[in-house]
Amino acid sequence: MPTILESINSALHTALENDPRVYVLGEDILDPYGGAFKVTRGLSTRFPERVLTTPISEAAILGICNGMALRGLRPVAEVMFGDFVTLMADQLINHAAKFRWMYNDQVRVPLVLRLPMGGRRGYGPTHSQSLEKHLLGAPGLKAVAPNTLGNPSDLLLAAIADDDPVLFVEHKLLYTRHLLEDKDLIDWEVTKTGDPYPTFTLRTNYQSPITIATYGYNFELAREAARELMYEYEIFSEIVLFSQLSPFELDPLFGSLRRTGRLLTLEEGTQTLGWGAEVAARSAEQLPGAVRIRRLGALDLPIANAKSLEDDILPSTEKILQTALALLES
After folding, report:
1. pTM for this structure?
2. Which of 42, 203, 221, 250 fits a 20 to 30 Å CA distance from 193?
């Protein structure tokens, strides 16, 4: 099976080959370098006129993409590190997300912003964050995140075909992970709902007293913790894995919670006012008095360079296990 990096790279090749409106922009994305994480490797050699290296100005990159999209093109922008999305916030929130509404649906802004996010590589406070939560409440923006269960290639091609701006949140540790095969999922029955940005529900054949809701790389941790709960404690979990982070489409989660009655949300962004807080609030509103909830995210601290401190700050399989057991005892 291909890696996440190979799948995303393949999607970019396919999009450029099949649609002359697609352009790829970013810093240091030309061959032979191919971007900080090598996702754009090979693109500029095949499509030299439509793979464009840019100055070090994230606001300018998005401003150019906005203009290109308004003129009928479909730009795909790469941010070297997702932390720098803060420099693009005005172009995203006040421009890309708003033009469709400001001009009475006479224009669309079909752009994709690829955001390598996440820690665990020792890059420190300004290169290790998961900042997507700060953009999930912006009307007009969509946010999706690939994982090893779905096909990232299909997800990215759907984002490029979308007529609205899409944030494509790629956790750095996923790049070298392979897509899951059936043999990796023998403990689960998997249900897929909602195209083009699907939600996956993983269930066992046994009654489950807890649902873990998550996305992206955190699914890897959730799966490890769920296996340990299963094999060491004989506790069976359901996992609801989201590809679409915003707008919130939570019906599959509500269906799971009606079966389990307990929700653990898992994200790598800081826990306060995060994705999990909104998921928890909506679940409590949808199922008043019927669900018990815990949230798990990063501590509300800058992410340290030192591995020992970084590990303390970010979620882990052990923290998931401890939080799940505490929830089950409540």
Report:
1. 0.97
2. 221
